[in-house]
Design a protein that fits this description.
172 residues, mainly alpha, 6 helices, 77% helix, elongated
Amino acid sequence: MTLHRSVISAILLTLSIFAANAAAQKKSAPKKPPVKTTIPPLDVRTAREKVQIQHDNVNGFADKLTPIAQSIEVLEKAYIEKRMTPQQAAKHEATKEQFIAILRNTRNDLTALESEFRTKPALQKYLPNVKGVTDLALFAENEAVAGRFTASIKPLREIVIKLTDALAVIPK
């Protein structure tokens, strides 16, 4: 009977060792708590979209208006020297007015954008990033009105840089 007990004890001891190993293997690594992603307020997301739209518009205008500005200035010399027909002169004047109108409309859009950042509490912390785009747009417009069409493109490029910087800090 002692032999029987010692065999049973040995079996139980062996089983308990295997059971301990099996239990140790079943333990999994502690689970990480789920990452909570916070969505910015609707005002911030909407404002970011508006900044993106203005960024794309101003960048596109700067690209498209650069060769037009250069040709206006070349034609301006011919206009001053009266080497244009009345039809050419009228077309030249219309082109200059359209150029200035594009800058004026851009300024109006940027004024509305900057104003929104000034007036909405959720956007005021991002105001330093868009502050001044209206002034730059006004400067571009004034340059064109003064006949410096090529010079009017530089403030547009500065606006694009400001809006790019703003997009970097305004959450999606």
